[in-house]
Amino acid sequence: MAKALLLALSLSGLTFRSAGVVRKYHYVDTALSWEDARTHCKAKFANLATVTKQEDADGLLQALPSTGSYAWIGLHDDLTKLSWSMTNVSFNNHRNYSNWEMEKIDNISSRDRCILMKTSGTWQDRSCEEEQLLVCYDEESPNTYVFVNKSMNWRDAKTFCRAHHTDLAFVRNSSENGRIAALLPADAWIGLFRVSWKKWSDQERVSFTDWGEGQPDSKANASCGAADAATATWWDDDCSLKRPFVCYTIQKTQKARVKLKFLSEADLMDPAVHQQLLEQHWAPAHVLAAEKKGAGIKSAALSHFLLLVHTF
Ligand SMILES: *[C@@H]1O[C@H](CO)[C@@H](O)[C@H](O)[C@H]1NC(C)=O
Ligand SMILES: *[C@@H]1O[C@H](CO)[C@@H](O)[C@H](O)[C@H]1NC(C)=O
Ligand SMILES: *[C@@H]1O[C@H](CO)[C@@H](O)[C@H](O)[C@H]1NC(C)=O
Ligand SMILES: *[C@@H]1O[C@H](CO)[C@@H](O)[C@H](O)[C@H]1NC(C)=O
Ligand SMILES: *[C@@H]1O[C@H](CO)[C@@H](O)[C@H](O)[C@H]1NC(C)=O
Ligand SMILES: *[C@@H]1O[C@H](CO)[C@@H](O)[C@H](O)[C@H]1NC(C)=O
């Protein structure tokens, strides 16, 4: 596992041009939950369907039987994933300090949400468009936190704090939370937020969507995406429902020439390494045997990609 991680770290530093990638979609007429469908796609294809452009959306539609019911695609909304606007400070809802007004956060709606601190110090998730006062974090200020008596939406609040201070306030423990709350004459934005429907199941960023009217409406645990052939649009739905699904593979041959520091002796055929590569889009379908070629150079045909591994 340690070896696999090393390899993944070295890979992640590389640039890789994926422009022109064409996905081929495969409809699987077996009713499974979203998670099981994903497992199936990863075993037999690349992953559940990822759609990044209109051409993909058209291809996906063609793969669906016109009479079929909704079919799972790779859209998933991780309801527990929140972040601080200060990007070098991590937030994990299960491990880090939080002070939610209601103990749930798993029930946060499937929309972009931004977090408001009440004067009592408790946290509430709100629409990011609401105009609220704000509290900034300021590295230079002796008081660390600065209450700003101006109403604005969360995005503008972030911009304001970054321009005049360091960033929107972040909180690490109850004493910090108490210090901020003590400053507040009224409720105020802090730096915590959630972007809904952020990533496809293969970790591709969601940049293109084709939601049906009023979707996603986030009713009843609806945090997985399904495609509907009849309306040619996408709907959010309860992930535990069993539905047929659509997987993808990469169709077009692409060449990517990369160099990477081979930090470990990790074997490209090691299943753990293989998994890491898959997660980073390196090998949609199958990693072909890595050929050892001369001193320290390995060349592996990764599905349709060519990967050159240099040893330094
Ligand atoms: C985080 O980044 C900010 C700038 O955005 C910087 O001022 C601050 O020192 C960094 N904090 C840590 C802990 O790295
Ligand atoms: C989740 O939110 C809905 C709508 O706001 C509410 O009706 C429901 O009781 C909440 N469920 C839990 C477990 O908090
Ligand atoms: C904030 O501004 C309003 C007017 O915009 C003013 O009435 C109020 O006293 C101010 N509060 C603080 C704490 O400065
Ligand atoms: C959240 O927890 C992680 C690890 O448990 C820690 O590295 C990180 O600094 C914590 N974030 C905050 C804001 O305290
Ligand atoms: C809260 O976190 C800050 C920053 O890590 C630390 O300096 C402080 O001692 C902590 N306070 C408590 C009570 O844990
Ligand atoms: C949402 O999922 C949770 C856990 O899976 C379950 O307890 C809850 O009843 C579900 N809520 C609805 C409205 O389906």
Automatic annotation (TrEMBL):
SUPFAM superfamilies: C-type lectin-like. One of its GO terms (molecular function) is carbohydrate binding. Residues 25-137, 140-248 form the C-type lectin domain. Keywords: Disulfide bond, Lectin, Signal. InterPro entries: C-type_lectin-like, C-type_lectin-like/link_sf, C-type_lectin_CS, CTDL_fold. Residues 1-19 form the signal peptide. Gene3D superfamilies: Mannose-Binding Protein A, subunit A. This is L-selectin CD62 antigen-like family member L. It comes from Takifugu flavidus (sansaifugu).
